[in-house]
Amino acid sequence: MRAFAGMGLASAAEVTATGGPAVAWRLRARREQPEATISGTTAVMPGRGRDRAVGREDQSLDKGSNKDKNKTSKKLIPDHISAVLEIEPLDAILPSPGPPTPIPPHLLTDLRADPLLGLADIRLVQHIQPTGHIQPTGAGLAEHAQAQRHTQAHAQTQAQTQAQTQAQTQAQTHAQAEASASYQSLNRDLARRLGTEPIPAARLTWLALRLELPGSRRQGPAARAAGPILARGGGMLGAQRTLDRAARAASAKLSPAGYHTLTLADSDYRPGYRSEMAETHDYLDATGVTAAPGGVLIGLDPAHRPVTLGLFRRMTLNAAVVGGRYLAETLVLRCAAIGARVIVETARKDEWDPVLLHSGLGREHLALQPVGRPVSNPGWPAPSMAAPLLVVRDCGARPPFATVPRGPWTTIVTLLPYFDPRTAGYLRDADLVGMQRMPREEAAMARHLLGLPDQDTAALPDLPDSMVLWRSRKRSMRYCELAQTRWEQAFLGEPLR
Fold first, then answer.
1. Helices in 402-453 by DSSP H: which ranges?
2. Please, which residues bridge with residue 102 across strands?
3. Spans of biased composition, class Low complexity (predicted)?
């Protein structure tokens, strides 16, 4: 009987008597809870699967002492390890205009049947957020107004303040409902015309892999996994290598379909492969399943197909826009409609005040901050996949350096009124660049910096006010005409450069 490296095993006689190596898996009693990393990611350990207690009794102690000894000597041992891969298109920030490519239908079947992997469970888990986790509501404003009312010293002043606040809250609530409803109406109308589903605020597709360890109560899967684990060195290290090999095999099968994978950390998902999003769907068969990302519906391309921006990712996304304030305001309203909170750093507060006062976005969703001091989160919860954070820097052609929030589910958009060579770094380092009409000299500099084709360089000086050319870091490019909702048209007016 081969010994597993670093693991305490039962004797060969015990293994033979109990039916084979699958039930001989034991960790030494002095071993603490182990952690296994797969491609730099912590695998599922105690708390993710069934925990087993193993204790040793000290025969030299009396019966009462043995009981106390057993309580302290019991160690938790995992009965499985698992990995979760997030599946994304090659360019999730600026998705291609065509229909999404389905996930290979034989993916799960091939991984499940591979005898060199011995996986116990393989499934696709898809999380969808249709309209955003936190829609703008008047509840926070009403609570804030009520707190202010209680601080009034005089009853007459309190009554006047209450009447004014109620009127303001009703107007803001109506504006919030109009803004959200108009965006969803635009989304549904486009989906109905194209015969597709409305674009969700977010869609995450995960591939969950589970490997049973020898000694698990699931004896069949554990027996299948014993051979691959032993062939890769045995013990927990062999199990790690086996699961890592399964993750690489899944990535290789997804690559020809135009997808890449990201291995998630244990803290990136909840037990049972759940998340905080509104809808969760489990698939044991990949037939007909696509991993199209959600995002912000910003407009239509010349072929009248929707243009979606995947602005919120697991890492900080930097975007630069060479254009007018109208485009920045549209991004703010659209991101707020899908549940994002927005911070605007601006030197022209008077021009942004109408958005703050009349859009219905209260202090719990929109904050204006002056230029020249660190941009901070105004007491909001940390950004999440269902409630991300958008930071808009409207600081002129040469924005000063400032500390801005960074982290998962955070996007920083720098608004540049024109192309200045001294701020070329914002465009060169951006994950997404949006360009409105610009003079030929600026178009030539953009061509040199971003590698634009000649035809796109020639088109930039003649773009209409409502047209934007988007370019991602992966060199995907799409023309987009801003699609106004009725509420945006009444609130913002006609598009301006």
1. 424-428, 440-450
2. 290
3. 142-179
Torsion of CA 253, 258, 259, 260, to 10 degrees: 90
Helices and strands (DSSP H and E) totals, the chain: 13, 19
Nearest Cα residue to 383 out of 414, 344, 345, 339: 339
Assign residue 393 a region: left if phi > 0, alpha if psi is -120 to 50, beta otherwise? beta
Alpha helices, DSSP H, located in 123-196: 139-150, 155-194
Which segment, 351-355, 399-403, 472-476, is predicted with the most confidence on average? Answer: 472-476
Classify residue 446 by burial, with Cβ atoms within 10 Å: 0-12, 13-18, 19+.
buried
DSSP label at residue 23: G
Domains, the chain: 1-8+39-56+77-132+201-294 (no CATH), 296-492 (3.40.50.300)
Transcribe 64-123 into DSSP letters: HHHHHHHHHH-EEEESEEEEEEEEEETTSSS--SSPPPBPPTTHHHHHHH-TTT--SEEE
- What SS3 class is residue 14? helix
Report the candidate in 423, 385, 316 with the shortest Cα–Cα distance to residue 133: 385
Reduce the DSSP state of residue 300 to 3 states and report it: strand
CA distance 330 to 413: 12
Instruction: At 235, list the tokens.
Output: 């013990």
CB 68 within 8 A of CB 292: no
Summarised one tens digit per residue, pLDDT across range 49-65 is 434 433 433 444 344 44
Q: What is the pTM of this model?
A: 0.76
